[in-house]
Amino acid sequence: MASHKEGTGYTTAVAVIGLGSMGFGMAKSMKRAGLEVVGYDITQSAVERFLAEGGRVAATLTDAVEGADIVVSVVVNAQQTEAVLFGPDGIARAMKPGSVFISSATMDPAIARSLAERFEALGLHYLDAPISGGAARAAKGELTIMASGSPEAFAAARPALDVMAARVYELGDAAGIGAAFKMINQLLAGVHIAAACEAISFAAKQGLDLQKVYEVITASAGNSWMFENRVPHVLAGDYTPLSAIEIFVKDLGIVQDMARAERYPVPLVAAALQMYLAASGAGMGRDDDSSLARLYAQLSGAKLPSKG
Amino acid sequence: MASHKEGTGYTTAVAVIGLGSMGFGMAKSMKRAGLEVVGYDITQSAVERFLAEGGRVAATLTDAVEGADIVVSVVVNAQQTEAVLFGPDGIARAMKPGSVFISSATMDPAIARSLAERFEALGLHYLDAPISGGAARAAKGELTIMASGSPEAFAAARPALDVMAARVYELGDAAGIGAAFKMINQLLAGVHIAAACEAISFAAKQGLDLQKVYEVITASAGNSWMFENRVPHVLAGDYTPLSAIEIFVKDLGIVQDMARAERYPVPLVAAALQMYLAASGAGMGRDDDSSLARLYAQLSGAKLPSKG
């Protein structure tokens, strides 16, 4: 692998596992910043998109991580993360000594802890580093990363973190803490989207001027980041998935499972999750999460704007 | 009543019905701005507080509104508003022709419409004008007012609106629309407080650094106006009521009743309302609405900060 860096003659080598909308953007950011990037994905179309950007790809997982200083995993969940690390073609035994695995999937903190323990026992570093910010910010290298791990893991991951993120929160010295912060964020995000949709379709049911509702609420105590961000999709009648219903079926499901295990009641999460499940069951699972507004409208006869 | 105003020799005369924390501040703002203000409250301590500020008070409702150009009603709910207007000592038949009644209580829009109709039939003007902003902004004349009513009602109310509010939304030409906007705001506000408390106590249950959670969430997609505003009460362990649990028992109750009548499902409101009811039942009804965090902690053994 090529290797040079100002003053040292060395370029950090990075493997990106998962070239979906987030992983593709993160790989692009790192390539643009001069890191030596190799990508891997099981989906041919994702591979081709990265090749078309001038990216390098590997044919197998173990090929991808050969010689890598940093492996960034941008897969969907804990199961896929475990498969990447410890599955039949798993990378845990192929990574070079002292290298770091950056795990960005949203997962139960207990699973993050357990994966990290197994991985670190091999003499490697694990950074629990869930991401937030969406595909556009991934491509610009402006993600928010909620990270925890050993000082060695942070040090080894630094060249990738610096170019992928506008903001890296260092939340603790062990895996699981980053995951726990991310789940608190997802709890709120998922409930707020559902609340925004419950409210805007209720306003529609009453025949209120929805643009005016948006204007008043975003300037009032009822505002949320999600109301401000998602309600414009409803006003435009555009449910092109920027983030899909299924993401919150997954994430609120994790929160509910964690809470049940800890004997902690989450009535708001439970109510919101039922609405995401209903939207998915009604065929909107792959549509934008603001589709909950359409679900409320279907259930009540409220009239929402259609795509203009 | 005294009467002069630059250029015209006339000072607008205002009666303020209800001198609680909001009404007191609104009366003060109008007095400071040079309006001729008379206050009324059934509670002696509220009367004395206004007298101590140099305010004038009346002994009866009908005395208070005698000669008033504008009556600002700052009572708690629809029942009290109806009693002020049409009760045994009601003001509807004592107000002078062409004067305006500004109703600030949060209520079901259908009730606002019906009160306005009865009142307007007497040749008087009714402005449906729920307020938002809290006692501190009331005292500074910086409320947000969500108003609807006839052009005549707006014109007659203008001198009072201008000095009470930093922002007056003109939402439509009939009573009920202002009320409906306010209920949409309360739906979101009530759910967001409950979500903030569900989240912060869940973070506590997991042993996370709560100051760090506040820092990360307020900079992330999980943020809401209410999370940002209320969680500091929890972090300080200070549940002095700035807004009480009972306010949302009332307001989410109104939303739930409206929604039931319109055959509109509100699962998030329903879940949140149960938590406010539980907090009230557990003895926290008059405490700050962030007391929901204490309820979650009691139910789960989570440890929250205590007052330092």
Would you mind describing this structure in some detail?
Two copies of one chain form a homodimer. The longest helix of chain A has 29 residues, at 177-205. A six-stranded parallel sheet of chain A has the order 3-2-1-4-5-6, with helices on both faces. In chain A, 53% of the residues lie in helices and 12% in strands. With 308 residues, chain A is α/β, with parallel strands linked by helices. Chain A contains 13 helices and nine strands. In chain A, α1 runs parallel beside α6. Chain A folds into two domains: 13-174, Rossmann fold, CATH 3.40.50; 180-300, Orthogonal Bundle (N-(1-d-carboxylethyl)-l-norvaline Dehydrogenase, domain 2), CATH 1.10.1040. In chain A, β8 (143-147), α7 (151-164) and β9 (165-170) form a beta-alpha-beta unit. The first copy, chain A, starts with 12 loop residues before the first strand and ends in an 8-residue tail after the last helix. Chain A has helices at residues 21-32, 44-52, 61-65, 78-86, 109-120, 134-140, 151-164, 177-205, 210-218, 225-236, 245-261, 267-284, 292-300; strands spanning 13-17, 36-40, 56-57, 70-73, 100-103, 125-128, 131-132, 143-147, 165-170. At the A-B interface, α8, α9, α10, α12 and α13 of A face α8, α9, α10, α12 and α13 of B.
